[in-house]
Design brief:
Blueprint lengths: L4 E6 L3 E5 L6 E7 L5 H9 L3 E3 L8 E5 L5 E2 L2 E6 L1 H11 L7 E5 L2 E4 L9 E2 L16 E2 L4 E2 L6 E6 L8 E6 L5 H6 L3 E3 L4 E5 L5 H6 L2 E4 L19 E6 L5 E5 L4 E8 L5 E8 L10 H10 L3 E3 L4 E4 L2 H12 L11 H8 L21 E4 L3 E2 L5 E2 L4 E11 L3 E8 L3 E6 L3 E2 L25 H10 L39 H11 L3 H12 L12 E4 L6 E9 L2 E9 L1 H12 L4 E4 L6 E3 L9 E8 L4 E8 H4 L7 E6 L3 H15 L9 H10 L3 E3 L1 E3 L4 E6 L1 H4 L1
Parallel strand pairs: 13-17
Antiparallel strand pairs: 1-7, 1-8, 2-3, 3-5, 4-5, 6-7, 8-9, 9-10, 11-12, 13-14, 14-16, 15-16, 18-19, 19-20, 20-21, 21-23, 22-23, 24-27, 24-30, 25-26, 27-28, 28-29, 31-32, 31-34, 32-33, 32-40, 33-37, 34-35, 36-37, 38-41, 39-41
Helix pairs in contact: 1-2, 10-13, 13-14
Length: 698
Amino acid sequence: MAEQHILAVHTYGSQRVKHPMTNQKVSAYKLGYSSAACEVLLALYGTKARDVSSSRASYRYLQIDGETTVHHGYLLLNLTADELAQAEGVTRRHHRAAVFLWRGSQWLELPTNRQAEYTETTAQSGPGFNPSSYRPVTPASGEKQAAVEGIQVEKSQRDPNQKPWFWLAGDTYPHRELLKRSGARFSGKRKSWYYVGWALPAAIQAIITTPTQANEPPRERRSPLLSIFGGGIVGKERTSNHDTIVKGENGVFATRTTWVNQHDQPEVVWVFDLPPHERIGISLPAIHDALKAVNATFSLYTRKWHFDQPNKVAALDALAAAVPFSDDDPCTVEEAAHILGLPVKPVPAVEVPPRLFALDQTIYARHELQTPDGKVVQTGTPGTILHLYNHNTQHGWSYDVDFAESGTGWYFERELSDLEPIPGIRITHGSVVPPGATLPPTDADIKHTLIETHQQPERKAEPQPDNTAADEPKIRIIKPQSLPAEGAEPDAVQTAIQQMTVTLPSNMLQVIATSSNSKSLTRISQRCVGELSGSISGQVWCFGYALHEGMCVYLNFGGPRMATEAIRAKLSKGDIVSVTPWDAPAVELTAGEGNSGMYTAFMQHISEAKFTSLILLHDWVVNPNYGGKAVTFIFRVSETQAAAQLKHHITELVKVPVFDEWTAYLYQAGQAAMLVRKTRAGGEIDLLTLNLDVDAWT
């Protein structure tokens, strides 16, 4: 018989999950995302195993056909020498194996790209049981087979005055009836037969092939603190202020830091950050129970669990010391390009958007405004541009406007419009925030702050007078034709303008109809706008964000895996994260006070580059609320696409049919009424805010 090897593959047990292809519930084994466990099983089982993980799952899920043997969280396999070499080749390509070999009465972890040789394990880092009495499965045949040839007996006697115990291991299954008749019993915990007596019966001695004798050594106890981390610690990093952060298998982070206690004395503590509520496969009540079981303290001030008892801190220090620091430093752009085989694209130059209004142009108040001396400028009030100001990175263009009826003031471009008010539409302007959240600053507050801090943009130089000769031709500027007053008869030009306002060209209708039925993907622009910070380790870069009334509704960022997951956890719990641009003050990003679990994550991990890309979308973007007064958002990649998306939302909102011929009018009227408006964003993302107010749209 060929030499057999026993392999143990770490698993979190079986779980019912939805198959991504058939959408049917199947039973699958839950495996670590960053370990080699899933790839090893796929290589050994071949077509008998299938990866049924969803694209958003934080773990790997593997469906295996046939029988399996699982003990203490490990799948037991019986391999040949060739199959063992195949498994070893897979683990050498990963940072962590989570696959162990039984050799010389001990477990050894298979080599990885960090450890070139087999390494010994402890009770915290590998299996802690003897597999000789189990029947592992042979992947090639799918059948269970005894771990050792024949039957071995082990005599255990702690007290010479008491009867010894004889433990029988090996291929005992064919002899189970004989063992039962001879007085032996089966231990469900050790999965092995045993006999208690001064000597073995002759019938049992006849089937024994290898007798051994050993006093059973005390088993190494597993630390109860590991239950907080789902059974083990999988990573450790050091922060910029030299604090230590460890991560558990269940997504729990623990930070070793120093704070000042109630007696104004420095105190070393371990503070726990729990994973977000929506993380698949994680039970927050189970984590809370584990923290309570080890007497952790919950702080009402920080809203976090922590250890401040010296014995608990020392115990967790010992567990953390056994884990090496993670090498998650991101590679350079050139290294990533070499690994991926892609050319390096040059960083695009920042393009300033064109100015919408010109000097001496007639404009209208987009919503209710206020002059510096406190006078109210009603919506739709006409005014004239007096002075132009240079572009501001955060707030765009601005102007001095003379409203004849109210006075002169300084206004942002977003507060003005070149469209006359449409009769029959009432424009309202306000902030939509959840209960208890702080109202964001108004444009008037922002302008007042800029003036007080001397950050108001510089006024653009006035154009020089025209000194050309009288006989040289001049450029004649014709102002746009305005619409007639209510009740007046329009002339031919005004009639044409009205027809173009409500009539959509046939070619645009065709494009809109095509885009509404198309399922193709369109690239969303992104650009690095700064670095994210918030008590995390590692550099995380922001490639785009969008804010609505002070709340973050879109965030595109990337960096080391543990650091990006820490950012995701903080935002999902309602904490504040800051993005620091190179040329502007820091911007605070939050889901709003008291809001948790408000984001849907889209994650892509590039293991070769040690880089994780993550996009968070607010629930208002993913699941619009059409049942009341709410807001949602439209990613605008073209005017045609945005108009078609708007028509879809209005169709879901109102109770009357919405025809394609109305699309252009709805898009224009919605912008004029501030029901569709540009969202404050950074990183070349073009996002529109859409008010889902059924009364305003009907």
